[in-house]
Amino acid sequence: MIRSRYSVLVAALAASSQLHAQGSMMLEEITVTAQKTTELIQDIPMAVNAVTGEAFRRAVAFDMQDLGKLVPGVVLESTGNNQNITLRGVGTKISAAQAPRTNTYLDGSYVNNQQLSFFSQFDIARFEILRGPQGTLYGRASPTGSIVIHTRNPDLTGFEGYVEGTLGDYDLVNTRFGVSVPLIENELGLRIAGLFDENNSADGSYANLDQEQYVRTNAGRATLLWEPETPVSARLSLSHVDYRGDQSSAYAEDPVQGISRYDRVEISEQPRLFGSRFNQVILELNYDLDWAVLTSQSYYADGTNDEIKDVDRTPVYASVQDTNIIFNQAHNQELRLTSSGNDYWDWIVGGYYSRAAADTDVENRFVGDFGGVLVNLTTNSEDFGVFSHNTIYLTGDWTLTAGARWNKTSRYNSNTADYFGLVPLPDQANVSRITDIDWTGTLKLAYRLGVDQMAYGTVDRGGRGGGQTLDLTGSTPDNIQDFGPEESTSFELGYKSTLLNQRLRFNVAAYYQIYDDFHQEAIDVDIDLNPATPGPDFNFRVIQNAEKVLVTGAEVDLTYLFSTWFTGQFNVAYNDAEYDSFSNVACNGGPRATGLQGSYATGGIYQVCDYSGLRIGGDSGDWSGVAQGNMVLPLSGTGMEWYLDVLANANSFRVAPNTRIRSAGFATVDLFTGLRSTEGVWDLKLWVKNAFDKEATIIEDVPEARTYNVPNGITPQERVIRPRQVGLTAIWNF
User: Fold this and answer.
1) Taking the CA atoms of the chain, what radius of gyration do you get in angstroms?
2) Where would I find the H helices in 37-88?
3) What is the SS3 assignment for 66?
């Protein structure tokens, strides 16, 4: 049979993992579910990074931003209620009721609100980063990739768990725990996990306010796993999170007065307060039909977001924004049928449905008695999908994978703006109904060069629907509020290998990706509202379609087991993203300005530019790299071992998408050392992050128009990297 040799291979590699656990000179193999079936990561013809829960824990990682330090070419950022994932040089960062470019999934279900993925992570089994368009198997097609989070299952064989506590600089107090209880041995189990986290790891403060900054998260999760000796199995998880904070998003800068952004001082007259409360329910049901497995995957979530902030971020009372969002019962459902161990053809067929709604109220209060605007935004979305994913074993060495997905996306947006006080604008209401129908999918051809080597080529197509700019000030011109769907096609060549008697793992991938009608946001664009007084009267933000964006890149993963006590890992990613064609960009002039657009009848007149040939800008540089070293030395006769872990992360320069300001590259080093029992019962770890206290700006994208009449030349800046932080972590496993 064609597949028989690979069944033997999987069994042999699984045995290798057991031998390594006993101290042999072999790397452990990692299993993933990137293609909705359990496979060894080295057998998948696509670029996938896996970070185990143990690796995440070993790096004293608390949230998704810490995950980004472990994988090159991945930037995960969160500022209050705003989140962004940059993968393969492209992020999202747009203000719209729109799916992100990189989707996140939790225990098999699409997470409708990406913010839920950025809260403090706990009790994790594994993270999987799927690079490149995902257009077949997952709930929504994505143009850049997906991040799949797997939480830990209950242990059905016995009582077990852990308690982990961390204390550190900047008021860091973090407690995490997980406990498994077998309710019916080998059949039904319950796992309870949770966390409490409070810190000011950014070391931010206010210059004009007597108020301490902080971020606080309380979260819990209960998971039931039922695996009886019948064809039916089930997994149910319920989680709740409460996230509150008061933390800066930009810092002051004034070289004349000696104020540096690295002093991490915010000069606004209003603290930045934010909070979120969410509930999630995930239910997976499986029925084994012998010839196939029928799976039902259900997801439900609801919650609220609140934020109040000083929009101009200066001591001048110019604009304060108060935002309240209610997420109304987001849910999705997938039903799929997966074949069981066929010799020549494995297949998956299924359907998907998703519905989500949100109601947003925003109050913007302007300078003094000037007045303000009350904005209400109502959004509803509905998604349908039908898909098929097929793996055909052509010969003993050649494998063809073909998948396709039909997507229908519907969006309803209602945006009303009611002006009060002296604001010279009429009340307005805009309603948008958008329906997009598209085909996405994948075609992969893999060739087995040997037992431990594989080469592959893929063509992947992804994308996302169009929508309407989230107009929080009611000032976006009517004729450009809507934007069309975005499409992405990627061509990838890759090589995967496990060499030197399974001591060396070497993977490399190169890709060329084309985006059509790429979504790009311009912020604080000046607009002329009154023909009697030419010149800017206000500003707005807008999402536009760039005609074409080209991205080229390569990724290398290298892991080597030097000895039974030392392992080294080096990963590097290169991504070059630029506008191939992007004219009529809403802008504030400059050398690329090409003229004026708009009309007073449709909301005002503004300038446009031509950005063709420029980098798209964002939070990822061309180059990024991660180097790790893990050393373990047993202390003879003590039942203990000493360890030292080193994590280095480097990033090249980045360009801001709006200001086009270039931020210098930087590198950080984290160190972890401690003692633990050889049986894994306890662990006491001393650590320091950003050990050399490197100072660097992440990105600087605040247009000058936003600073208004700032005294003494002080201007706000974008975020900077976190300062050096020292802490102590203790873990007890039972």
Assistant:
1) 26
2) 53-58, 64-67
3) helix
Sign of the C-alpha dihedral, residues 13, 19, 20, 25? negative
Helix (H) or strand (E) run with residue 389 in it: strand 371-393
pLDDT confidence of residue 19: 35
Kindly state the tokens that stand for 713: 């030349």
The tens digit of pLDDT for each residue in 560-582 reads: 999 999 999 999 999 999 999 99
What's the pLDDT at 97?
A: 65
The answer, yes or no, to whether residue 105 has pLDDT greater than 60, is yes
Q: How far apart are CA 417 and CA 430, in angstroms?
A: 9
Nearest to 151 by CA among 78, 82, 238, 76: 238
At position 222, the amino acid (one-letter code) is A
Residue 9 DSSP SS3: helix
Structure tokens at 85: 């994932």
Q: Is 317 exposed, middle or buried (0-12, 13-18, 19+ CB in 10 A)?
A: middle
Residue pair 220/232 in contact (Cβ under 8 Å)? The answer is no
| Helix (H) / strand (E) containing 237 | strand 232-246
Q: Give me the mean pLDDT over the 489-498 stretch.
A: 97
SS3 letters across 674-701 = EEEECCCCEEEEEEEECCCCCCCECCCC
d(CA 387, CA 615): 35
Share of the chain above pLDDT 70, in %: 93
Contacts of 184 (CB under 8 A, 6+ apart): none
Q: Report the domain count for the chain.
A: 1
Confidence bin at 107 (pLDDT 50/70/90): very high
- pLDDT at residue 369 tops 80: no
- pLDDT score at 139: 82
Q: Is the pTM value of this prediction over 0.70?
A: yes
Taking the C-alpha atoms of residue 469 and residue 508, their distance in angstroms, rounded to an integer, is: 38
Q: How far apart are CA 511 and CA 550, in angstroms?
A: 11
> Which one, of 396, 384, 389, lies nearest residue 435 by Cα?
384
Per residue in 514-527, pLDDT tens? 999 999 888 888 88
Chain center to CA of 540: 27
Spatial distance between the Cα atoms of 213 and 202, rounded to a whole number of angstroms: 9
What is the distance between the alpha carbons of residues 665 and 721, in angstroms, rounded to a whole number?
11
Neighbouring C-alpha atoms within 13 Å toward the C-beta of 176 = 19
φ/ψ region of 474 (left if φ > 0, alpha if ψ in -120 to 50, else beta) reads left
* Cβ pair 605, 528 in contact under 8 A: yes
- CB atoms closer than 10 angstroms to residue 531: 10
Whether the Cβ atoms of residue 103 and residue 146 lie closer than 8 Å to each other: yes
User: How far, rounded to the nearest angstrom, does the alpha carbon of residue 106 sit from its chain's CA centroid?
Assistant: 12
Residue 105 domain boundaries: 4-733
Annotate 216-274 with DSSP letters as a single string. EEEEEEEEEEE--SSSEEEEEEEEEEEEEEE--S-EEEBGGGTB-GGG-EE--SS--EE
Which pLDDT band holds residue 710 (cuts at 50, 70, 90)?
A: low
- Asked if residue 259 has pLDDT above 90, the reply is no
Cα distance between residue 106 and residue 303, in whole Å: 17
Pairing mode of beta strands 102-106, 145-151: parallel
Are residues 354 and 366 in contact, defined by beta-carbon separation less than 8 angstroms? Answer: no
Both structure tokens of 313: 């971020």
CA distance 91 to 371: 35
CATH number, domain of 616, equals 2.40.170.20
| Residue 262 neighbours by CB under 8 Å, 6+ apart | 251, 695, 720, 723
The arithmetic mean of pLDDT across residues 631-657, rounded, is: 93
Task: Locate 592 and state its tokens.
Answer: 């690329």
Please give the angle made by the CA atoms of 183, 189 and 194, to the nearest 5 degrees. 115
Decide: helix, strand or coil at residue 107.
Answer: coil
Query: What CA–CA distance (Å, rounded) separates 383 from 408?
Result: 6
